[in-house]
From TrEMBL, chain A:
The keyword Phosphoprotein applies. The modification Phosphohistidine is found at H77. PANTHER family: HISTIDINE-CONTAINING PHOSPHOTRANSFER PROTEIN 1, PHOSPHORELAY INTERMEDIATE PROTEIN YPD1. Keywords: Cytokinin signaling pathway, Phosphoprotein, Two-component regulatory system. It is found in: Cytoplasm, Cytosol; Nucleus. It comes from the Eukaryota. Histidine-containing phosphotransfer domain (HPt) contains an active histidine that mediates the phosphotransfer. Residues 36-141 form the HPt domain. Functions as a two-component phosphorelay mediators between cytokinin sensor histidine kinases and response regulators (B-type ARRs). Plays an important role in propagating cytokinin signal transduction. Its main location: cytoplasm. CDD domains: HPT. InterPro entries: AHP1-5/YPD1, HPT_dom_sf, Sig_transdc_His_kin_Hpt_dom. This is Histidine-containing phosphotransfer protein.
Automatic annotation (TrEMBL), chain B:
It holds the Pfam family HATPase_c. Residues 223-436 form the Histidine kinase domain. The lineage of its organism: Eukaryota, Viridiplantae, Streptophyta, Embryophyta, Tracheophyta. PANTHER family: ETHYLENE RECEPTOR 1, TWO-COMPONENT SENSOR HISTIDINE KINASE. Keywords: Kinase, Phosphoprotein, Receptor, Transferase. Residues 464-581 form the Response regulatory domain. This is Ethylene receptor. The modification 4-aspartylphosphate is found at D512. It comes from Rehmannia glutinosa (Chinese foxglove). InterPro entries: CheY-like_superfamily, GAF, GAF-like_dom_sf, HATPase_C_sf, HATPase_dom, His_kinase_dom, Sig_transdc_His_kin-like_C, Sig_transdc_resp-reg_receiver.
Length: 150, 590
């Protein structure tokens, strides 16, 4: 495919992601340059690793007999921070709701929140993977990744 | 005896017969009425079906199917005018999925006859438009035809419709079953006429929808293309360009109207008054007062981009006038102080005036329709207009406030709106950074004059900084930002590591203060203690996800020089470092 077409598809796809990824993701794209050509890929990969670890920890923590809400809150805070840094706004919002229920020390509600957070994470993960694939295609075709509106 | 009985019997018989006939007649009439009722019901159902879709194909197919069912038709067909308008083409039939595109010239007498009246007209089964069934040995059923007005978009004026505004019609042809001796009843013809009208309306809705979707797609395409062009231009400006190329690129940027470059020149603040002279006539027509108060401690002259500042002011004041029906607008201009801690929106930086700069704060208060606090964040987004604001006379496209925000950001300031709710008026506030002429050091001024229209590009290359954040993703992003700006970054995850790692070579330490269970303020205190005797000890800046007053106060208390709200954008980080540079906390990098 022509580089132009790929770039156009890329921009259109990115624009369609506005509900999932906010302006912060655009900032990450800005940081990718010749001296740092894989930046977005690295940050996103780190985000995936980090998130999966946190989700596992959260699942374990909520399965315990005596649930340690402080620990759970700390985990969710982490997740909120990392999703916010990458622009995954729906994940971040789900984390904010989660923290509210943590404060209320309601185990059932927290389990539901965990499901919600997991779902949002999986959604944004699919979108990010698709985006990264498009980026690879553009680079392979010799083009430059177009920047997003910040 | 019999002679007497027979006439009586006769009259009884006659009466009986009379009654029987009457009964039969009534039965027939009842039957008719029932049919009409049913038909009425059918019409309502039909109309509902037809009007429930906005897809023109579905509209037409549904019409034919439902009509066929309701009236028990053998065939029902629709002929549409061709693009040239000279022929009618068979477009839809009940019995065939894809009719061969028969055409007939539109000027046939039978067609003219039908098109000249809004009534359903009986036509001969032998006319060209009625030859829809294979010719057989049977007696063809009666055929009627009716016109279906096709409304043009620009003719869509209800009071003129359908007589005057349209000249294009489609032709609907309906055939009763052959060999049935059925005849078209009046109520059936009426039904056909009603349906034809409904179809016309439904088709026009579908056409309008198609048109607007096409327009929307075009707009989106243009938007995408413009974004691409703008981004390419921006990237280009950041690299080395020949003067002609630079000029071309900057022209694109300016004309695309989505990015502005600042022209910093002498700004006469008394011009603010003049700007208001543009607004006063409009306000007085609406009988609104406009007052301006300028604080005496405002300098007479300052350095800044006057044109952009005026644009922001006029935009904001214009909005205030637009949405105010009675009362008026009060504008106040003064020097911003750092007690703006009470403001809901934090600045990246405390507005500490220095020898070279001050912050101008302008508040525009109106007694107008107010804004629902929930809608306030959307106001500054492009193309979004919330319902109550998009009143009858809103000619704007919704770009105004978004552009104001852009300009204000370029002037390293902030703009926001406060309102207690609908009907309670609103206050728009913006703060921008302006220079004090004569106090700027020579090199800066020269720089400004040499390359007009270009932002001062600070040089941070090699600046050594430390970033402390326990969140790995956040740490990587902040580090990435600073590396991109040219800094030499050391990233650590804990307060301990931070205190240990900070050396006198590091000029700035960025501390995340929102980590639960970690007292980052203590870390700050310990860092200060480590370098207590040194005049050039590292500056500490807070990174946080919360913006509450307590956090800010704590930061001030431990001597931090700034608070940055996460997530951090490239522009924000650049502004922070520039400010540190200008305040003299950092020296220009070696």
């Amino acid at each position: 495919m022509e580089v132009d077409q790929l770039q156009r598809s890329f921009l259109e796809y990115t624009n369609s992601l506005f509900r999932f990824l906010d302006g912060q993701f655009g900032q990450l794209q800005l940081l990718q340059d010749e001296s740092n050509p894989e930046f977005v890929f690295e940050v996103v990969s780190l985000f995936f690793e980090d998130s999966e670890r946190i989700l596992n920890d959260l699942t374990l923590a909520l399965d315990q007999q005596n649930v340690d809400f402080k620990k759970i809150d700390a985990h969710v805070h982490q997740f909120k921070g990392s999703s916010s840094s990458i622009g995954a706004q729906r994940v971040r919002n789900a984390c904010i709701a989660f923290r509210n229920f943590c404060e209320g020390q309601n185990v059932e509600a927290c389990r539901r929140c965990l499901q919600q957070v997991k779902q949002e994470y999986l959604l944004v993960k699919t979108k990010l993977e698709a985006l990264l694939r498009l980026e690879q295609q553009i680079l392979a075709a010799g083009g430059v990744i177009p920047m997003l509106d910040s | 005896m019999l002679v007497h009985i027979i006439p009586d019997l006769l009259s009884v018989k006659t009466r009986e017969l009379f009654l029987k006939n009457k009964a039969a007649e009534l039965d027939r009439e009842m039957g008719l009425i029932r049919t009409q009722e049913e038909t009425g019901r059918h019409v309502r159902m039909l109309t509902h079906e037809i009007r429930s879709t906005l897809d023109r194909h579905t509209i037409l197919k549904t019409t034919l199917v439902e009509l066929g069912r309701t009236l028990g038709l053998e065939e029902c067909a629709l002929w549409m005018p061709t693009r040239s308008g000279l022929e009618l083409q068979l477009s839809y039939t009940l019995r065939h999925q894809n009719p061969v595109g028969f055409t007939v010239p539109i000027q046939l007498p039978v067609i003219n006859q039908v098109f000249n009246t809004s009534r359903a007209v009986k036509i001969s089964p032998n006319s060209p438009v009625a030859r829809l069934r294979p010719v057989g040995k049977y007696m063809p059923g009666e055929v009627v035809a009716v016109r279906v007005p096709l409304l043009h978009l620009n003719n869509f004026q209800i009071h003129d419709w359908p007589e005057l505004s349209t000249k294009r019609y489609a032709l609907m042809v309906l055939m009763l079953p052959s060999d049935s001796a059925r005849q078209w009843h009046v109520h059936e013809l009426e039904l056909v006429e009603v349906v034809a009208d409904q179809v016309a309306v439904a088709l026009s809705h579908a056409a309008i929808l198609e048109e607007s979707m096409r327009a929307r797609d075009l707009l989106m395409e243009q938007n995408v293309a413009l974004d691409l062009a703008r981004r390419e231009a921006e990237t280009a400006v950041q690299t080395e360009l020949m003067p002609e190329q630079r000029l071309m690129v900057e022209t694109i940027l300016k004309s695309s109207n989505l990015l502005a470059t600042l022209i910093n020149d002498v700004l006469d603040l008394s011009r603010l008054k003049m700007a208001l002279n543009l607004i006063k006539p409009i306000a007085s027509v609406k009988r609104l007062y406009v007052t301006l108060s300028m604080s005496p401690d405002l300098p007479e002259y300052s350095v800044g981009d006057e044109k952009r500042l005026m644009q922001v002011l006029l935009n904001v004041v214009g909005n205030a006038v637009k949405f105010t029906k009675e009362g008026g607008i009060s504008i106040a201009a003064f020097v911003a102080k750092s007690d703006s801690l009470r403001d809901p929106e934090p600045l990246n930086f405390f507005p500490i005036p220095s020898d070279n700069h001050f912050y101008l704060r302008i508040e525009v208060k109106d007694t107008g329709s107010g804004i629902n606090p929930q809608d306030i964040p959307k106001l500054f987004m492009k193309f979004v207009q919330s319902q109550p604001l998009a009143a009858k006379n809103s000619g704007g496209s919704g770009l105004g406030l978004a552009i104001c925000k852009r300009f204000v950001n370029l002037m390293e300031g902030h703009i926001w709106i406060e309102s207690e709710g609908l009907g309670r008026g609103a206050t728009a506030i913006f703060i921008v950074k302006l220079g004090i002429p004569g106090r700027l050091n020579e090199s800066k001024l020269q720089f400004v004059h040499k390359v007009p229209g270009n932002q001062v590009k600070p040089n941070f290359s090699g600046l050594k900084v430390v970033v402390m954040d326990d969140n790995s993703v956040g740490r990587m992003v902040t580090k990435g930002l600073l590396v991109h700006l040219g800094c030499d970054v050391l990233a650590v995850a804990s307060g301990e590591d931070c205190v240990r790692a900070v050396s006198q070579e590091h000029k700035v330490v960025f501390l995340d203060v929102s980590i639960p269970g970690v007292d980052s303020f203590e870390v700050a205190v310990r860092i200060h203690e480590k370098f207590s005797k040194r005049p050039d000890r590292p500056i500490i800046v807070a990174l946080t996800g919360n913006t509450d007053r307590t956090t800010k106060e704590n930061c001030l208390r431990v001597g931090m020089k700034g608070v940055i709200l996460k997530p951090v954008s490239l522009d924000k980080m650049r502004n922070v470092l520039s400010d540190l540079l200008e305040h003299g906390y950092l020296s220009e990098s070696q």
